[in-house]
């Protein structure tokens, strides 16, 4: 429903009054989505519709074109309704959509902040690249900034902007990289190999790590290497051509990490090779299950099947929203391979 | 929850991951493998854990039961029931992988040879599947089978783990029928398994909302200062069922509502509501606080039972417009049965915090609506300001709904719009299902995962169980008395229990909360 910006609150109220209390409004978080891609509004509306099935939120979807000469501001209100788990209730979430063109895009913080649901955390999902000069006011109330570094052309420059924003925030801003979220299921599958205490003796025996990544996902593979290196306290020794990295463990063992581009899946294989043992996680093309095995080289025991997750933006966001927001590990992993990203 | 479980000692790759540490591989031996509990709850729970990647692939399930059956027949049967009862849709690919870890072992429970061959089979499984000598024995059988099973497990040496491995036993309720039998059962279990190997299951504690009681109380600063006799008038705990005995008459006739529900589930909920903050989240710190509550329960001597406990039995009536027979007309029920299907109690926790705050607990079958909830009724505000006579509806009430429609609501007073000062109660309501789309794991998933991880927090300890029976026994004794036992009231199926239960609260100017 298109609305005048100044009448958004009134229209929202009307939206709920008109349905006669049959529907339940739910919100646990303010989720603002910002994109400068053409036609992003309908795409992001679909994503929000999926997200709200499991994560009740007030969504503020902004499609911006700062390069336009003429000012244009339009707004809509939408409700995403789903039948609740118990099956007897329509649970609805509000979405406010804004189309901003021209110099008025500078008013973004002003628009966003005036429509936040009070007392709920504020997550800002910034799609695409951060600008050179970001309005510090924007970061004033952000609790989490969500981005996807896989799409960045210059990781270091972008990261500096994020870190500047973090420093300018009035509160602690959590950095949530969807490129890191992509790795959750792989990290779980690898971590579980080493849950039994005796298996942790194998950390010292790891000599080779092989990671296969899909076209465009080298940064994802680097983050996975960075995670292993930072958590196992390996020091970066150097890199050679052909995506080969070398690390050294605390006890002095040399570890070779090789990254290979293969297929389309973001990460299709990660193998950790030790003395007489291989820990292997495979994500076969077109499968939503990881095939997980720990075996002597050459042996192929039946794999354990684990959820592989999805590269779909809505599902990545859902995974991120389920996360507990502890991003120390991400920062360590990212800093470990920062200059390689 | 516990800090002391097996595998949580720093796997650096676990840091920051939201899911918990995968437990060590083990063999899970289920006694009573062809029973209802196994088909409806245990195997679906294990499947869901495996499908979510929460169990290591080597985890192996051995069904132990009397009927002859092959491994494949057992897998097929369990596959069919899991498809029916699983929380998440069963995927063939995942089931086929999981089913390879299912085996069947046929034996009578009292046949020593069956346990010898079980031990051999488990050793072979350890070698072939890498279960590392870890064994979890699940007694999903009637209590009269505990003794032969435990005795035979001991004789076969299955109660002792090899060095670096573990052996644990999960015992299903009912854990005894009175204090003497509970002590006897504990003694039987402890001939073979030490207390830290014994996991007494109470599936209420595996429910998310039961666990959330501690979070509500101790992670929110606003409630704890009010959580005492200065501000709380009384507390009600209700567990209502529309169902009757549904084929459980054989068991229920000997148990009744008090033993079936109050001694375990409802006293556990009472403990969570009334306990002091534990020193930490370890299993024993939490259970230490819970056992203090049970010890502080004011005992009801036989002569005071009629004043403090109302028992009832459903008669013919209707549920949702459908005729429902009376309890005595149910199959396998004695036509002169004195078994209670409803019980309401007034309890007091004799502690500094809860001095003279009554706790009203009721449980019943064939009530108009199914639901389990705890309602905390706060004292009324002073009447000096609004010149309004306060009614029961004017109390603030915090309701914790355990099932169904899990959530929390708070009733408070608000001014009605208008020029006059009209005050009406309004409700702030939080529903898990509305706010969190993702379904919670089943209680049995959580409890099985905890047991395989060595976390006993959500299981009842020996002293908790025995103290609870010590509280219940005088009531049962009074009811069993030949000289003027307290009356067993009838109530029509589909009503909220006998009138005496309403009068019970009305005496003090209170009323049951309407669910």
Description:
The complex is a heterodimer of chains A (341) and B (515). In chain A, helix 2 packs across helix 8. The mean pLDDT of chain A is 87. Chain A has 341 residues and is an alpha/beta fold. The relative contact order of chain A is 0.11. Chain A is built from nine helices and 17 strands. The two termini of chain A are 43 Å apart. Chain A has two domains: 2-178; 181-340, 2-Layer Sandwich (Dihydrodipicolinate Reductase, domain 2). Chain A has helices at residues 8-18, 40-54, 108-113, 155-168, 178-181, 184-193, 218-231, 313-322, 328-337, and strands spanning 2-3, 23-25, 30-35, 58-65, 72-83, 90-101, 122-126, 144-147, 174-177, 208-213, 235-240, 244-248, 254-261, 267-274, 277-282, 289-295, 304-307. In chain A, the strands form two sheets. In chain A, strands 1, 2, 3, 4, 5, 6, 7, 8 and 9 form a nine-stranded mixed β-sheet that branches. With 515 residues, chain B is an alpha/beta fold. Chain B has two domains: 12-201, NAD(P)-binding Rossmann-like Domain (Rossmann fold), CATH 3.40.50.720; 205-374 and 460-506, Dihydrodipicolinate Reductase, domain 2. Chain B has 14 helices and 18 strands. Chain B has helices at residues 36-51, 71-85, 92-99, 112-129, 146-155, 179-192, 208-218, 249-274, 283-296, 305-308, 432-435, 443-453, 462-480, 499-506; strands spanning 27-31, 60-65, 102-106, 135-139, 167-171, 198-201, 232-240, 309-315, 317-319, 322-324, 342-348, 358-364, 371-378, 397-403, 407-415, 423-431, 459-460, 488-492. In chain B, the strands form three sheets. In chain B, strands 16-15-14-13-7-12-11-8-18 form a nine-stranded mixed β-sheet, sandwiched between helices. A seven-stranded mixed β-sheet of chain B has the order 3-2-1-4-5-6-17, with helices on both faces. In chain B, strands 9-10 form a two-stranded antiparallel ribbon. Classes of the chains: A alpha/beta (341), B alpha/beta (515). At the A-B interface, helix 6, helix 7, strand 17 and helix 9 of A face helix 3 and helix 11 of B.
């Amino acid at each position: 429903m298109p609305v005048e910006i100044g009448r958004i609150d009134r229209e929202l109220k009307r939206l709920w009054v008109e349905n006669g209390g049959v529907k339940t409004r739910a919100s646990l978080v303010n989720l603002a989505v910002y994109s400068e891609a053409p036609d992003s509004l309908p795409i992001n509306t679909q994503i929000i519709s999926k997200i709200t099935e499991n994560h009740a939120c007030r969504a503020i979807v902004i499609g911006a074109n700062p390069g336009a000469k003429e000012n244009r501001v339009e707004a809509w209100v939408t409700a995403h309704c789903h039948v609740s788990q118990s099956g007897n209730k329509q649970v609805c979430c509000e979405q406010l959509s804004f189309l901003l063109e021209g110099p008025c895009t500078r008013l973004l913080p002003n628009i966003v902040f005036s429509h936040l649901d009070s007392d709920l955390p504020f997550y800002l999902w910034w799609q695409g690249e951060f600008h050179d000069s970001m309005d510090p006011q924007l970061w004033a109330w952000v609790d989490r900034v969500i981005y996807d570094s896989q799409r960045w052309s210059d990781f270091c420059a972008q990261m500096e902007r994020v870190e500047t924003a973090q420093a300018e925030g009035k509160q602690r801003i959590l950095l949530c990289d969807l490129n890191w979220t992509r790795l959750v299921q792989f990290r779980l599958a690898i971590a579980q190999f080493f849950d039994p205490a005796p298996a942790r003796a194998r950390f010292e025996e790891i000599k080779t790590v092989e990671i296969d990544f899909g076209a465009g996902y080298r940064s994802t593979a680097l983050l996975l290497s960075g995670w292993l290196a930072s958590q196992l306290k390996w020091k970066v020794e150097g890199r050679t051509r052909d995506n080969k990295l070398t690390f050294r463990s605390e006890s002095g063992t040399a570890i070779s990490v090789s990254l290979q581009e293969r297929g389309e899946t973001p990460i299709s294989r990660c193998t950790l090779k030790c003395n007489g043992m291989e820990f292997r996680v495979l994500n076969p093309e077109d499968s939503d299950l990881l095939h997980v095995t720990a075996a002597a080289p050459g042996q192929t025991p039946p794999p354990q099947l684990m959820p592989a997750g999805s590269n779909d933006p809505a599902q990545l966001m859902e995974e991120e929203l389920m996360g507990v927001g502890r991003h120390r590990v991400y920062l360590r992993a990212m800093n470990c391979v920062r200059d390689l990203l | 929850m516990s800090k002391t479980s097996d595998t949580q000692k720093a796997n650096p790759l676990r840091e920051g991951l939201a899911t918990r540490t995968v437990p060590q591989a083990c063999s899970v031996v289920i006694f009573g493998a062809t029973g209802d509990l196994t088909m409806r709850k245990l195997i679906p729970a294990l499947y869901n854990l495996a499908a979510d990647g929460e169990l290591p692939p080597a985890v192996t399930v051995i069904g132990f039961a009397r009927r002859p059956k092959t491994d494949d027949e057992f897998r097929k049967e369990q596959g069919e029931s899991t498809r029916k009862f699983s929380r998440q849709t069963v995927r063939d690919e995942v089931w086929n992988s999981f089913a390879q870890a299912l085996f069947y072992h046929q034996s009578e429970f009292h046949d020593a040879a069956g346990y010898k061959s079980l031990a051999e089979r488990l050793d072979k499984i350890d070698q072939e599947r890498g279960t590392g000598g870890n064994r979890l024995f699940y007694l999903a059988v009637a209590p009269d089978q505990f003794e032969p099973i435990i005795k035979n497990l001991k004789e076969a040496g299955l109660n002792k783990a090899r060095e670096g491995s573990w052996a644990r036993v999960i015992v299903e309720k009912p854990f005894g029928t009175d204090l003497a039998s509970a002590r006897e059962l504990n003694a039987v279990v402890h001939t073979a398994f030490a207390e830290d190997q014994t996991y007494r299951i109470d599936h209420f504690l595996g429910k998310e909302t039961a666990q959330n009681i501690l979070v509500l109380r101790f992670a929110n600063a606003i409630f704890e200062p009010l959580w005492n006799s200065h501000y709380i008038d009384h507390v009600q705990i209700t567990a209502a069922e529309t169902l009757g005995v549904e084929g459980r008459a054989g068991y229920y006739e000997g148990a009744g509502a008090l033993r079936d529900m109050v001694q375990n589930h409802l006293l556990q909920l009472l403990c969570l509501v009334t306990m002091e903050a534990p020193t930490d989240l370890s299993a024993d710190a939490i259970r230490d606080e819970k056992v203090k509550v049970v010890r502080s329960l004011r005992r009801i001597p036989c002569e005071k039972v009629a004043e403090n406990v109302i028992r009832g039995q459903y008669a013919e009536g209707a549920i949702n417009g459908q005729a429902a027979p009376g309890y005595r007309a149910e199959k396998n029920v004695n036509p002169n049965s004195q078994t209670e299907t409803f019980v309401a109690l007034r309890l007091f926790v004799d502690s500094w915090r809860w001095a003279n705050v009554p706790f009203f607990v009721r449980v019943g079958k064939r009530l108009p609506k199914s639901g389990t909830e705890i309602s905390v009724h706060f004292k009324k505000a002073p009447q000096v300001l609004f010149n309004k006579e306060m009614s029961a509806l004017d109390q603030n009430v915090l309701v914790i709904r355990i099932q169904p429609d899990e959530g929390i609501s708070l009733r408070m007073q608000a001014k009605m719009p208008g020029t006059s000062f009209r005050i009406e109660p309004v409700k702030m309501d939080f529903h898990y299902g509305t706010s969190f789309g993702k379904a919670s794991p089943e209680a049995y998933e959580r409890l099985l995962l905890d047991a395989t991880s060595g976390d006993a927090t959500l299981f009842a300890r020996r002293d908790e169980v025995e103290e609870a029976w010590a509280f219940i026994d005088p009531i049962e004794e009074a009811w069993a008395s030949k000289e003027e036992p307290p009356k067993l009231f009838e109530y029509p199926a589909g009503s909220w229990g006998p009138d005496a239960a309403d009068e019970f609260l009305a005496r003090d100017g209170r009323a049951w909360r309407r669910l």
